[in-house]
Amino acid sequence: MPFDRWNALNDAPVFPPERFGLVADRLGRILRTRNDILLFQTEAVVALEAATASLARPGLKAINIVTSPFGAWFGGWLRRGGAEVVTLSAEPARPIDAKAVTAAFDAHPETKVVIFCHAESANGVLNPLEEIVAAARARGIVTVVDAVASVGGHALDVDALGVDIAVIGPQKSLAGPAGVSALSVSPAAWALITAEGGPRESTLSLLDRKAWLDAGRGALPGTSAALEFFALEAALDRFEAEGPAAALVRHAQAAKAAREGLIALGAQPWAAPGRASHLVTTARLPDGVDAEAFLAAAAHLDTDMSPGVGPGAENLVRLNHTGRRACFEAVLGNVAAYGIALRKLGLEADIATAAAAVAAHYAG
Known about the structure:
CATH class of the largest domain: Alpha Beta
Largest sheet: 7 strands, mixed
Number of domains: 2
Structural class: alpha/beta
Distance between the termini: 51 Å
Order of helices and strands: HEHEHEHEHEHEEHHHHEEHEEHH
Strand content: 5-15%
CATH superfamily of the largest domain: Type I PLP-dependent aspartate aminotransferase-like (Major domain)
Number of strands: 11
Strand order of the largest sheet: 1-7-6-5-4-2-3
């Protein structure tokens, strides 16, 4: 192959330094916040680890709400920094109960931080964000929210709710690149982060990243991930053109259509109404049906189904309707594929009725 063959992905131009601040402002508007926005040139799990590492220190007590295997990571990161961590686990693959959170706050009045996930991609459940944040705010507890799989698909008004740190990634509802992420930081969160004992001179230090804010939000430290930021701008262009409200409606519509389609097949949606993610809909397979065999039966179809992740999700199948997949064609394809897999395994499935149930949500 000639070395001079042109490829748009090679030798990309430098991302203009003056546009990083503009990108941060656009993300802040999506989050509906005037809090500081920090940008990460990496996937959102690093931003999540940075938030916990920057808060953790000896003497700090935190409550970690675990509703998926990924939530358990938060507690480990906090303990590594010397924090005392109380683990509050939901039933396997279920959302946390808001009353249990309030009871934990009351049982541990010295708690300074609570961390949890809003919408779980692992099992399709939605945690009670509003109730948790309100209870924490009333007690002066700083909230850290993993909103990677909810921003753009669920309402998230950071300032109105009082969320202190919201970590987001554009690869889900925003349909953007996975190699960049961001988080918002409130004054209350900065007060804890800037206290003595936080990490410095580290990729995980939010204090170090604060220097970018203080210096006028120009070039990011290190070599900029130009392609990722150009892709992020394109995703934001598309998201803003559609409008945040329309994107929320589109995801809610897809979730409801998928749910009704599954019910028409005789399937059992896993999460209760109001506690189900708008990005993935999970269904419990019939007794005796192995998830691996079920997905193999539908593998020849061009759909987006995958197994649940973690304890309690072993017999769950996830139907993905995230981002651009939150549309009639994708939802119908997934529901039909679910029915076809049931039939191939010798079970009954009224695919026509299910298709009609999906179509009813898009009839006009």
